[in-house]
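quick one before i forget lol
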Amino acid sequence: MKKEAVQINILHILNDGFKASLVLFLPSIAKEFAISLTKIGFLGSAVNSLDIILALPASHLATKIGGKKILFGTVFFWAGGFLLLGIAQNYLFIIPAFIVAGIGFGAFHPVAFALVSRMFEKGTRGKQLGNFTALGDLGRVGLASLVTIIIVYVGWRNTSILISFLLFLIGFYFLYLSKKELPILEEKESSEVISYKNMMKNKNFMLSSLSFCMDSLASSSLFVFIPFLLLQRHVPYIFLGALTSTFFIGNMFGKVLLGRLVDIFGNTNVFIISEIFMAIFIIILSNSTWLPLIIFSSVILGVFTKGTVPVLTTMVSESFEHQKGIEKAFGLNALFVGVASTSAPFLLGFLSDKFGIITAFHFSAGFALIATIPALLLRKHS
């Protein structure tokens, strides 16, 4: 079991790291091909939209052929995408490169979350999911920084081909390992595969998903708008990078910490307290003008925005404890949350234009508090 968990954690570092790295090629691509920002935006949207589009198909296929094979297969899509990018001669060739890579990135998370959830029992699941999600952040920071340095020295094309070659080697290695099927407590699962109809009727699952969606509305776009908020609060521009870094540090720490607290106090209790603290610190951050308090609030807010991901994941997992086909449940949940996350920046932007950015942040705090209502019902129902 430990061996399989290590493999999935390594793949998570690679998935999140190279997905973050892909957008770092865009400035060089735009310069070489004289591409407009509208076309650049389309490439980013194409990759992100595949997270929603592939959530159900990937998780459904995982129930048929095994989630581990899906994850190993995603490596070849990453590799193929970077290869196509490296040899692209114009914008029309870059589009399929991003789409091919995006297929691999989009199929990864719902399947990976299901596998990690099934590998560990309830008493240790929070800790393991916390570690798993934090490692994704490590990939985003570490690999993205390394790729940027390589691009500077060898150029974006050579970097892309080099990444492709490395990923093909990794893919073939994991393909060799896939001959051994992942042992995920098969003897404890029911023989009947979960149907989508049963998922929609499962009150615990729907309440968990509703909390997940409201949490996404509250937190997923904060990072985009925090710099604008801070500038309006007259924070010097030079401090923005440091403040956003503290937010990321809080993200990683929060996932590890809250995941462990789930195993001690239970997921609904941890989630409810986290959302209340998130709301409080959104209000503090949006109204404070004292720099030390702003920095402190950024760290704490980072803890409770992304730190709730492993907490909510355990809530979804426990809705179908020891049932076959849990990948489908994570796929459906990923679809719901993906729509909410995609809507959040548009919603917060609209509210900012309509009422001002400070009031928009107050709305985000309200969404965080609303997210506790399904969790309270879930705790009562469980």
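fyi The domain at 2-182 is CATH 1.20.1250.20 (Growth Hormone; Chain: A;).
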